[in-house]
Structures are given as structure tokens and as C-alpha cells.
Amino acid sequence: MEIFDPRVQHDFVNGIVEGKDVKISKKYYRDAKHFYLNPDASLADDTLMYQVYSYSEGNSEQVGNLNWGLTVLKPVSVNQECNMTRGHFHENLDCAEFYFGLGGEGLLLMMKEDGTCFAEKVFLNSLHHIDGSVAHRLINTGNEDLKVGACWPTIAGHDYERIEKHPFGARVFKKDDELVIEEDK
Ligand SMILES: [Fe+2]
User: Fold this and answer.
1) Which of 59, 69, 176, 179 to pair with 79, CA 20 to 30 A apart?
2) What's the 160 CA to ligand 1 centre distance in angstroms?
3) Which domains does the chain have, with CATH numbers?
4) How far is CA 29 from the centre of its chain?
5) Distance, CA 30 to ligand 1 centroid (Å)?
6) pLDDT tens string 104-140
């Protein structure tokens, strides 16, 4: 039998996924400022907010195929609001997802279809099962990169529009080094 080198390497400590078919997308402040309650005009548009590595093989429409991912969320705040990912529902609400903490400190904010929000703490070695019908967003509450791995079905899809129309009802701020959660009434 032949023995092959792996096609991809995930450096868990340094937060890098490398390989031929790995895609990297970067989110800059110019494209993220509308996430925040009070955009900060003093923050440069080209500030890197987070980057996402993703990797999969084969036909993405094939039921049973999987994506592998890593999000590295920078310790930036926007008028005291903690940096966060855009957040999404899955297009296919039958598709669950695993997240796992690889470094830093944060929250996994989730929202049920009825708008109820809840969160889990994220840290090195934390493991999170996200139900298929639950919207999810990562928030960096610490002072270093928040690194979170993920594995989910390729057919899950991302429904960002639903979050734009019905935003998460909770926001996370850090004021005088204390976390402050503000929830819609
Ligand atoms: Fe997801």
C-alpha cells in the first residue's frame, strides 16, 4: 500500500490551516461596521476583524460531505462592543455543527428561531454542539485572538439574510474590563 502525506495541516496552536484546497477569507472593518451598535469612525476601514479558513473535498452538494473550518477573531472592540463574527442560520436547518475552542476567550452566542438568545463560554478545549435550527455567532471577549475550529456538513449553507432581518437580541460590551451584556427588551 502507498502511504501519503496529509493534504492539509491544521496548526492548532498557531491558528493556521494550510493545504492546496484551503480557502481563506478575511473580514475587514469596512465590511463589518454595520454589525455594531455604534460604529467607531476612528477605526481604520482596513482593520482586520477576523479571518476564516475553510477546507472540504468533493461535491459540496453531496449529503454526508463535511467542511472543516477555523475562525481567528481579533481582540478589537468597536466603541466598547466586543468583536464578533457576522453570524448566521444554516440554510438547511437539519444540519448541526461542532465548534471547539483552540485559544483565547469568548462567547458563542446562539439564537433560537423564536428569538431566544443564549450563550456558551468559549476557551481552549471547550466543545460546542450547535443545533441545526440555532443561529450562531462568535464574540471575542478576551485580549488575544479567539481561535475556534468547526466541522459542519457542506449542505448546511449560510443564511446571513435572516440575521440581517432578525438580528441577535443580545450584544456584548467590555467596559472597564467588565463584560456587559445588553439584551433587547
Ligand atoms: Fe454554521
Assistant:
1) 69
2) 10
3) 8-183 (2.60.120.10)
4) 15
5) 23
6) 999 999 999 999 999 999 999 999 999 999 999 999 9
